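Researcher: Here's the sequence for the chain we discussed earlier.
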Amino acid sequence: MPDITKTTDQTVTPVGPQTVVVDAGEAPGKPRSLWGDAWRDLRRRPLFLISSALIVVLLLVAAFPGLFTSADPKYGDLTNHFLQKPNLTHFFQADWFGYDRQGRSVYARVVYGARNSIMVGLGVTILVTVFGGLIGMLAGYFGGIWDSLLSRITDVFFGIPFLLGAMVVLNAFTVRNVWVITGALAFLGWTQIARVMRGAVITTKHADYVMAAKALGADTKRILFRHILPNAVAPVIVISTIALGTYIVAESTLSYLGLGFGDDALSWGGDISDALSDIRNNPHTLIFPAGMLSLTVLAFIMLGDAVREALDPKLR
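Model: Thanks. This is the structure I predict for it:
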């Protein structure tokens, strides 16, 4: 019988005539996948933890604004003069960020404006990821005439300026709500995802495990969704996460230009537009919605950078 030596850091396990040293910190068993390694790496990154915490708070604000303020964002009281400085010691109260020209609470409008802006960003990201990913996957896998046709359609949409095209599309609607703005931005924003997915699928479809699945008689649907998609979707997730902040900025820009939400809707872009005329007298009406917009975009970009570094072995 071979000798067995136990230590605090290592365990020596007999295997026939040899001994195998197993690290006590790593549980033996099934090896981790790419996603398992990425999640393990993400949990150790301060950038991921900070951005995730910010995004969770922003999602809570968007979903349950009543938990963060009891003030009515549309109620105006002219006795609340807009030239009064914000009372930064009154946390979560109506006068925390001051009042605008119509006597409305800037803090309440910032809180309630998060819902429309974040809903548009998330909605556009989901639509462009699903549609653009499907187009890119079909073009990259089938190749030939399908690749040429879908790639030329992608090039046509890619040549349309994003914001200018969205302005033209939205100008055709008299009522512009969350669904209309989301659809207009998604109609023009899927091209980058399609190109990234196409390149990833072209690389993945020549892998040995895909060839083995074909040799075993797996159908096209199984090969695409069980073998190619899980191994080609990583760069798409990175691009989508970073682009989400871009879509929030695009919505705010359209609202600033008067082509976003209507006057009755609440959004950060609309508040920024309304505050420009009073920027000299009461800059707080511009600083706080613009600051919240910047913080939101920064959180999603930080999250995208952390995911990119975790999924790309070259950057570890």
